[in-house]
TrEMBL record:
Listed PROSITE patterns: RADICAL_SAM
HAMAP family from the UniProt entry: RNA_methyltr_RlmN
Cell compartment(s), UniProt: Cytoplasm
Protein name listed in UniProt: Probable dual-specificity RNA methyltransferase RlmN
The organism's place on the tree of life at top rank: Bacteria
Occurrences of domain Radical SAM core (ranges): 111-344
Length: 360
């Protein structure tokens, strides 16, 4: 317990961090250090995640002294909404400004089964995928767990007005989640906690572009959270062209780590496969992909690429999309074509942030 207290103190030393960063046990440790009973953690989590208050003064069953101490130590929400786009299909894209002036994106998508929120894990990205707007300008910094959690809460507050709730969360926004591993795991534990947002593990998905060492770490966590890999190519040559991360951790090493993940967790993997016209979208590529993933318990999610003006890739022809899907199905691969959403707004990851930056 003493070690945990020191960690919590170190995290908040010299700055007013978001209270959303604290896991439940961290908060209990902080309260104990402050001379408060541990049951106060239940009350605070109730106010934060059930009532979704935005001021500590609203926590009326806490003493004034404790509310003042909380207020002087933590902020509640570190986000300020600066832009919002709504699609005709119900997709909402939000641009938030952080306390240091950086901006991030969050997307709320409406499905038949409920509302899904796609969150950002970093300000920018260092990995340089050649099809992605998120990497324009490089990596500025990692987000704290509380800044990721705040995106879900901001989305939930907007849904509260409609009497709806967040039913699932995907960590597929700006940044590489496994490049911010510690804060990612903290975020997952807060939103999954039954006193937090209580979003079931199987309604949470984390996607990586292939940071191989962290795939092994994630497997060893043995979480029930869904796991997706941005694959986008059936060969190491094509993948290196699309995704520079493949030069650090080539396709064969990536596939070894995925096999380890399955052996350790016995869970299915989703492969995200963006289709880029004339690059990776032909029948021969589908056959190579089927051979690559043969024997794995997996699902392939085909994604017709959203055009990003700063990039040169073109959209795959409709007939080629269906031919690709048909080839995979004939090879026994579980595959779907992702339903397009937000086609009439800045839907591509990082696009709204990039366009707002141009305006400034």
């Amino acid at each position: 317990m003493q070690e945990l207290k020191k960690e919590v103190q170190a995290e908040i030393a010299g700055k007013k961090g978001s209270v959303y960063t604290l896991q439940f046990d961290d908060l209990k440790a902080w309260l104990q250090e402050a001379g408060e009973p541990s049951f106060r953690a239940d009350q605070i989590f109730y106010w934060l995640y059930d009532k979704r208050v935005e001021q500590f003064d609203e926590m009326t069953n806490l003493s004034k002294a404790l509310r003042e101490r909380l207020s002087s130590t933590f902020s509640i929400t570190p986000l300020k909404e600066v832009a919002k786009q709504e699609s005709v299909d119900g997709t909402v894209k939000l641009l938030f400004e952080l306390e240091d002036g950086n901006t991030i994106e969050t997307v709320v998508m409406k499905h038949g089964y409920g509302n899904s929120v796609c969150v950002t894990s970093q300000v920018g990205c260092r990995l340089g995928c050649t099809f992605c707007a998120s990497t324009l300008g490089g990596l500025k910094r990692n987000l704290e767990a509380g800044e990721i959690t705040a995106q879900v809460l901001a989305s939930q507050r907007a849904l509260d007005e409609k009497g709806e709730r967040v039913s699932s969360v995907v960590v597929m926004g700006i940044g590489e989640p496994f490049d911010n591993y510690k804060e990612l795991i903290g975020f997952l534990k807060v939103i999954n906690h039954d006193k937090g947002l209580n979003i079931g593990a199987r309604h949470i998905t984390v996607s990586t572009s292939g940071v191989v060492p962290k795939i092994y770490d994630f497997a060893d966590e043995k979480l029930q959270i869904n796991f997706a890999v941005s694959l986008h190519a059936p060969t190491t040559e094509i993948r290196s062209r699309l995704m520079p991360v493949n030069r650090a951790w080539p396709l064969d090493k990536l596939m070894e780590s995925i096999k380890y993940y399955q052996e350790t967790t016995n869970r299915r993997v989703t492969f995200e496969y963006g289709l880029f016209g004339g690059v990776n979208d032909q029948v021969e590529h589908a056959k190579q992909l089927a051979e690559l993933i043969k024997g794995l318990k997996c699902h392939v999610n085909l994604i017709p690429v959203n055009h990003v003006p700063e990039r040169d890739y073109v959209r795959t022809k409709r007939e080629d999309i269906f031919a690709f899907e048909k080839t995979l199905k004939e090879a026994g691969v579980n595959v779907t074509i992702r339903r397009e959403q937000g086609h009439d707004i800045d839907a591509a990851c990082g696009q709204l942030r990039a366009n707002e930056g141009k305006k400034k």
